[in-house]
Recover the amino acids of this structure.
């Protein structure tokens, strides 16, 4: 059902929406739900309760969760351009963002100068070519260093944007919207694939960091579960890893953009009805078209390329970043501070339901059997957290007075009439084996005991089951206990209605 639902969503919204937005949100939604259940009722007990829900209620729950994920993913999908620009370094012009943007941009300019020094002093032409190739992929050309951005992702994309202008006088921001519609699907497919991968990685970086920032403080304040805290804190290095992967996708994206302008720019001239000029005059033609589309100037006006700044001198020493990347540094510092706080803070207390007295296994718990008690959070791990989660249920193991009730030991809540006036008996060697393997606590079955006589026990509650050993514990009427016990060398058959 879930696969068919995702396929239907993909057919309506498109593959880019499913992979670039919906999948990251589903991952975070499932992780957040599992974490919330684990710190409240216990994940295992919650899954057991889920399996006992009617099929219709399960379907509605899945649909609601998927609908919520689709809504959030659709909002973030529409914000993908804003998210990319944020990672590129298009930050607010107010302080302190302007100061940070200027410092980071100057740092990347010094990195370009250092690569220029390494290229000029390279011992072999091969190594020199490698450094120049790296420099042209990571940063704008020397004539456009004034357009350097404060992040590595922004400079990679900026380098691909100014390539067409530096080579042919094409303003890619203006000409691309005219060139894109005439490209074939084969030409655009690699570009779209790399863009989809980049959007996915950037969104995963955002949600991974947000997951750590939200859940780490909550876990530090509400629980003492170190293993859960460390699992959530892993969102910080994961966010960094996803960002690094986005850089690789952006490098591929930039190469595809360059190749498209190299191979298909003249097709646009043909579509616009413009003659294909000689190579020496091609730059002038593109400058005229750019001014025509952007400033509505006639094509007859003479075009002149804007003067560019000279390249700065090489830098002999490797530059040091004066402002380490604030996002990762701040997040890592916050996680470290919370870890220290968890280590030195006193152990927190929680109130949990406890039995007032020792309770035998398979005995129904009533309100008079349960009280509340404050215990250390460590001792309450995996325990039921409210009296409502205990009253009206039974445990498959004995419960000790004034000790927390393990949530895993509680069976699903069932009609009290299936327990009133009944005793628990073990049914050995249940046949058929396939049915025994699918029996769970709380199932209502029909038990047939075949001996010299056949005894049928309708509407019998399964108290516990062991699929591996092939036995089940059921509740039969106390008045029929002697009848059940008198069946020697019997064959036991458990039948359950098909859901």
């Amino acid at each position: 059902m879930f696969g068919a639902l995702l396929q239907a969503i993909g057919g309506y919204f498109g593959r880019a929406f499913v992979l670039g937005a919906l999948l990251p949100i589903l991952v975070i939604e499932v992780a957040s739900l599992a974490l919330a259940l684990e710190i409240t009722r216990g994940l295992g007990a919650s899954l057991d309760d889920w399996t006992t829900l009617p099929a219709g209620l399960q379907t509605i729950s899945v649909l609601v969760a998927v609908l919520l994920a689709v809504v959030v993913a659709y909002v973030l999908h529409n914000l993908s351009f804003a998210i990319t620009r944020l990672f590129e370094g298009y930050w607010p012009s107010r302080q302190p963002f302007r100061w940070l943007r200027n410092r980071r941009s100057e740092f990347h300019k010094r990195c370009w100068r250092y690569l220029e020094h390494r290229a000029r002093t390279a011992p072999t032409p091969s190594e020199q070519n490698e450094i120049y190739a790296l420099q042209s992929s990571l940063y704008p050309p020397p004539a456009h260093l004034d357009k350097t951005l404060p992040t590595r992702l922004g400079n990679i994309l900026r380098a691909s944007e100014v390539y067409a202008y530096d080579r042919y006088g094409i303003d890619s921001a203006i000409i691309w919207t005219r060139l894109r519609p005439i490209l074939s699907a084969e030409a655009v497919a690699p570009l779209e694939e790399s863009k989809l991968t980049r959007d996915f990685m950037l969104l995963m970086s955002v949600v991974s960091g947000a997951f750590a920032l939200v859940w780490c403080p909550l876990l530090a304040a509400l629980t003492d579960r170190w293993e859960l805290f460390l699992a959530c804190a892993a969102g910080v290095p994961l966010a960094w890893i996803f960002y690094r992967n986005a850089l690789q996708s952006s490098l591929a994206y930039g190469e595809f953009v360059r190749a498209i302008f190299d191979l298909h720019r003249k097709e646009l001239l043909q579509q616009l009805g413009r003659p294909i000029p000689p190579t020496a005059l091609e730059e002038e033609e593109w400058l005229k078209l750019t001014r025509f589309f952007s400033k509505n100037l006639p094509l007859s006006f003479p075009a002149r390329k804007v003067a560019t700044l000279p390249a700065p001198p090489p830098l002999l020493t490797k530059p040091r970043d004066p402002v380490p990347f604030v996002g990762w540094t701040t997040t890592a510092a916050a996680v470290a501070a919370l870890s220290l706080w968890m280590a030195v803070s006193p152990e927190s207390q929680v109130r949990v339901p406890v039995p007032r007295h020792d309770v035998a296994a398979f005995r129904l718990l009533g309100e008079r059997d349960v009280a509340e008690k404050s215990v250390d959070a460590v001792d309450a791990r995996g325990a039921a957290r409210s009296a409502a989660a205990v009253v009206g249920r039974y445990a498959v193991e004995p419960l000790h007075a004034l000790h927390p009730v393990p949530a895993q030991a509680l069976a699903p809540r069932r009609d009290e009439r299936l327990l009133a006036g009944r005793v628990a008996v073990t049914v050995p060697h249940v046949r058929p084996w396939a049915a025994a393997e699918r029996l769970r606590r709380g199932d209502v079955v029909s038990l047939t005991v075949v001996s010299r006589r056949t005894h049928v026990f309708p509407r019998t509650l399964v108290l516990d089951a062991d699929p591996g050993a092939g036995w089940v514990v059921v509740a039969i009427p106390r008045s029929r206990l002697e009848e059940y016990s008198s069946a020697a060398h019997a064959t036991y058959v458990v039948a359950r209605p098909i859901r």
In short: The two ends are 16 Å apart (CA to CA).
